[in-house]
Please model this.
Amino acid sequence: MENLEIEGTHKNFFIPEVSFNAKTGICEISGESFLEDTIDFYSILIDWLDQYINVVKRPIAFIIKLSYFNTSTSRSILDIMNILKDYEDDGGEVVVNWHFDENDVDMEEDIDDFIIDTGIEINKISF
Amino acid sequence: MNVAENAYQVYTELIDSTIISYNGPFDAQVLSIIAENIEYSLSDNPRVSKKLFKIFIELAQNISYYSAEKQENSEGILFGVGIIMLREFENHYSFSTGNLIERKQVLPVLQKCETINLLDREKLRQYKRKLRNMPSGEPGSGNIGLIQVALTADYPLEYSVIPVNDDNSFYIINIRVNKN
Model:
């Protein structure tokens, strides 16, 4: 299975940096997310995760370092958290680490909302 | 004070307090230029700058998608038209937007604003999670942008709707963000 690499940009729209590694299971998304077509973009990430979960079947370390995302993006993040939670419930090994600026209380609240919504354990790592 | 002096006072007050003002179509390029201006103008207060940036993106996207008045951009794509103003006061910043909405949208828009203002922070987060969990496009799922705006500002929404003609009304929303 191939790795998924997407270069982040900060132009008219903000494309997050994506680095999903099929060998190590380390999947990182960072930067900012404000996209022209949010569902299109995140369906690529979701398809990759589905394939990894069904074919590779190894542990996943999901690392989020997003400093900004709009509300459309938050729906797609919710979809990803639900996929990871389902994988964990089916016996998959999943760790989610979310890095955020300690001054950004809104971000911490957002992370808590994903925990409440999906029941997934998210390690909140402030910097 | 005569009318001219009064108008001049209004003018100078607006000039003194206004950081950003824009009237026109809200396409991607406009959004990006204004977003950059917000970050630049408030670079000495990153916390507030980030809040205003988040609020701006959601309000601007609402205008872009839902304004009843549309205009083509240079590439021939239709975008919603509206007005936006960011102003600075002694203890707070104020973001105001205005755009036309269809008459049949008036009641849903007012109900949405009222609902948001009736809920405390915890209830508002619950409401956001409930709507976010509904498949988008489903009736009632609506958009959660305005809820996010209220959560980010941590202030009630100030809003009003003014009838313009038989088809349209003008929808104004004002958001305060404290400096500290």
Chain B has one domain: 3-178. Chain B is about 45% helix and 30% strand. Chain B touches chain A through 25 residues (CB under 8 Å). The mean pLDDT of chain B is 89.
